[in-house]
Amino acid sequence: MSLAVRTWRALLAGVMTLFVLNIGLMIAAVATHSFARRWLGTWLPDGYTTAWYVSAWKEFQLDAVLWVTVEVVGAVVLLSILLGVPAAYALARRDFRGKRALLLLFLLPLLVPPITYGIPLATVMYQVQLAGTLAGVILANLVPALPFVILVMTPFIEQIDPNLESAARVLGANTLRVFWHVLVPLLAPGMLAASLLVLVRTIAMFELTFLTSGPDSQTLVVALYYAVFAAGVRAPQSVDAMAMIYMAVTLVWLLIALRFVNPTQLVSRVNR
Amino acid sequence: MRDRTALLAAPAALLIAALFIYPFAYGLLLSFEPPKGDWLANYAQFFSSDRLWPTIGITLKLALPATLINVGLALPIAYRMRFPSRRQKWLTTVLVVPITLGTVLIAEGMLTYFGPRGWLAQFLQLLHLYDGPIRLTHNYWGVLISLVISGFPFAFLLILSYVTGIDPVLARAAATLGAGPWSQFRHIYFPLLLPGLAMCFCLAFVQAFSVFPSAVLVGAPAGPTRVISIAAYEAAFELYDYSLASAIAMIMGFVQLAIVALVLGARRLSYRGPVTGGKG
Question: Which of A106, A119, A221 sits opposite B249 (nearest CB)?
Answer without folding.
Answer: A119
